[in-house]
Every structure is written in C-alpha cells, then in structure tokens.
Amino acid sequence: MSNNQIVPETLQDEKILYPQFNKLKERNRELKTLLSIGGWNFGTLRFTSMLHTFGNREKFINSTISLLRTHNFDGLDLFFLYPGLRNSPTHDRWKFLFLIEELLSAFQKEALLTNRPRLLLSAAVSGAPHIIQTSYDVNLLGRLLDFINVLSYDFHGSWEKFTGHNSPLYSFPEDPKSSAFAPGPASPGKYTKQAGILAYYEICSFLEKARKDWIGYQHVPYAYKGKEWVGYDDIRSFQEKAKFVKAELFGGAMVWTLDMDDVKGAFCGSGPFPLLYTLNYLLLQDGMLVTVRSWERTNGKAEQEKLNYSGKRPPLPGFTSIVFITADCKTVIISAIDFLHQDGFDGMNLDIEHSEFWGSPTEDKQQFAILSNLRMEPQLCEMC
After folding, report:
1. Residues 252, 205 within the same domain
2. The model's pTM
3. Domain GH18, which positions (predicted)?
C-alpha cells in the first residue's frame, strides 16, 4: 500500500507472480483467487492512515477494484493484524468495519455496472480470545464478509519461556507453568533458516532421530531431541482438524502456508503436499469413489484402462478414514457397488501399499482385514 492505494509489492509480482498464480484457473475452473493485503510484517501504520478518513478509504477502494480486475483476481482478503492493537488506535476497530461496508458496497455497484461476478471480500482474523475481544465485532464481520479465515496458529511460540503447541485444536486445560521450561528458540531449519520455525518438510527430517508423542486433549503431536522441542501438525492432526471443521459446520479450512508442506514429497515419504492432500480428501471427496484413468498409448490408441482405489499414493487419509469411520466405510462400499455395476466392472482391487511406511496407524492392519471381508459379511461395516 502506498499513498492509501493498493499497489503490487514488486514489479515481479505484477509481471510474473500474478499471471502464474491466476493461470491455475486453467486447471480448475471453479478456483477463486484472492489478493491479500497486510500481514505481521506489514504492520498497522498504513492501515491506520488509510482508515482515517472517508476520502482515504475511497482512494483505497477504487485502486483495489482496478488492480483486482486488471490482474484477474476474484476478490480481496484483508490481513490487518490487528485493529486496536500493535500501535493501532482503538477506533480502528470501527473504522475497519466502515472500510468493509464501503468495499462491499463498491464491489456490488461495480458488478452491476460491468455485468461481472461481484468481487469477493474476506478477512484473516486472530483466533486468540483477547485479540478478538479488542479487535473485532464478530457479528458484523460475519454479516459483511463472504468468508473469514481464522488464524488458528501462533497460540504459542519461541517468544515464550515454556513449551506450548503452536496450533492446538483445543485449549490447554492445565497451568502453563507445568510445561517444560524453554529458554529460547530451537535451531534454524536448513532451508527456512529462521530460529524457532520449521517447515513441515524440515520437521520430517527432524523426526528421524527424535522421540515423538501426542497431546491427547489437544489432538496434536510434538517431538523432542536433545534440548530441542517441536510442536507441529502432521497427517493425523490434520485429520482431527478436518473432522472438527465438518462437525462444527465450518465453511472450509485455510492453510498457512502451502510452501511449508512437503511440496514435492521428497522429505516425508507421503507424496507431494501430504497435509494439503489430507484436507482435500476429507473435506471434498468424503470417501466417494472417483475414476482414475491411466492410458498407455501405442500408435495413438489407448490400450489400457485401470480402476483403482488409492494405489501408490499415500493411503492416508483415504484408507484410515474409511476403516475407522462408519459413515466413510459405508459410503465407499455403496458407491463402489453402484460404480462397478454402472460401468460393467466385475470387481474392485483394494491397493494399499506399505501402510506402516506412509504413516498409517498400526490398527489399520486389522481394520483393513475387516474392510476386505465385507465381500462376505457386509454387516461388519458396523465395526469400522
């Protein structure tokens, strides 16, 4: 942001990154891309200046619409950390709402004038109760925004003097003083090179010689090696969080940040983007069978078609979800029967490869046997 107008941070953003990012729509026609402004390092000063007067806000809004349309974005995400805190005056809480109302109104008018879909409007907000109380009118935000990204991380970190998980699903029920003393951040990662922070692919390397444990009441893992303690997310904790999202009827899930997943699958042994894949499967596919076509071409003619379930893609969360959750177990069986009859197949191959090496719980061995026996005794699904 410069002179109360939204501007690309660098020329590279405008010329290279924006086009590359929005080109993803060619691979997924339902994809919506939003441009985010703000963040921790952005600070609050420029937001406070822009919010100060109606004229400043109008200038920001007009520049926003122009930039989003020019570069083919579908909306704006406001990443203001935080109204009324970090040297932001208390009245920014209300002026932030004024901005959102005015943005929404301008987006609606622009859509009518241009006969284009209305630009989307979202905000990234803290999940910490003391920040929520100071910074947000939750009811009004819920009415005005298309969706809200709750930042459910940074609840604890290397700035504290005791160990605590960065992104627990549930709050800590005990006195934090009962945690281990932590005088400072752990060593920087080999690639991220920032003390106190590790990407998931760096954590996978750390785990090779570390002791792992699970915080049952918070549904998250941690590990320690020597004097270093790491709280992190893994496939299992992502499964727990996906279940929570569905059970509480949230609209979806957001991840910060994609480049810290095991992007190429080179470190964690679970294929590319194992954490994102887990969310995608549990939130979008729900265990339904999908067609996977593998063609080998000779002289331009397709010679082979295969129908598989899973295969040499990490079985988690697919198989673990199916064998442990009754609803998923039933779903895959019913959809399999319909699918196979409809397309003239004579059966289905369950291809689960080296499950213990992909992070599958040891209980999967017995549960997989139960699933396999359903050809003889379908009532066993109730045991899943």
Report:
1. yes
2. 0.74
3. 1-286
Amino acid at 268: C
Residues 6+ positions from 379 with CB-CB distance below 8 Å: none
Angle ∠(26,30,32) on CA atoms, nearest 5: 90
d(CA 196, CA 366): 39
Per-state percent for the chain, helix, strand, coil, to nearest 5: 40, 15, 45
Q: What is the CATH number of the domain that holds 114?
A: 3.20.20.80
DSSP string, 171-208: ---S-GGGSPB--S--PPPTTT--TT---HHHHHHHHT
Residues 6+ apart with CB under 8 A from 374: 333, 380, 381
Residue carrying structure tokens 């579908």: 74
User: In this structure, are residues 198 and 207 in contact, taking their beta carbons and an 8 Å threshold?
Assistant: no
Task: Report residue 134 CA to chain centroid gap.
Answer: 26
pLDDT tens digit sequence for 151-174: 999 888 888 888 889 999 998 766
The burial class, CB within 10 Å (0-12 / 13-18 / 19+), for 324 is middle
In a domain, 110, yes or no: yes
Under the banding of pLDDT at 50, 70 and 90, the label for residue 337 is: confident
Let me know: does 262 contact 270? Beta carbons within 8 Å: yes
Secondary structure of 295-322 in HEC code, one letter for each residue: CCEECCEECCCCCCEECCCCCCCHHHHH
- For the chain, the farthest-separated pair of C-alpha atoms sits apart, in whole angstroms, at 72
Q: Report CA torsion sign: 226, 230, 234, 236.
A: positive
Q: Which of 285, 311, 327 is the last residue of a domain?
A: 285
pLDDT tens by residue, 42-91:
999 999 999 999 999 999 999 999 999 999 999 999 999 999 999 999 99
- Measured between alpha carbons, how far is 322 from 288 in angstroms, rounded to an integer? 10
**pLDDT tens digits for range 262-307:** 999 999 999 999 999 999 888 886 545 444 443 343 443 333 333 4
Report the mean per-residue pLDDT for the chain.
83
Domain, as residue range, for 36: 11-151
On whether both 74 and 173 belong to a single domain, the answer is no
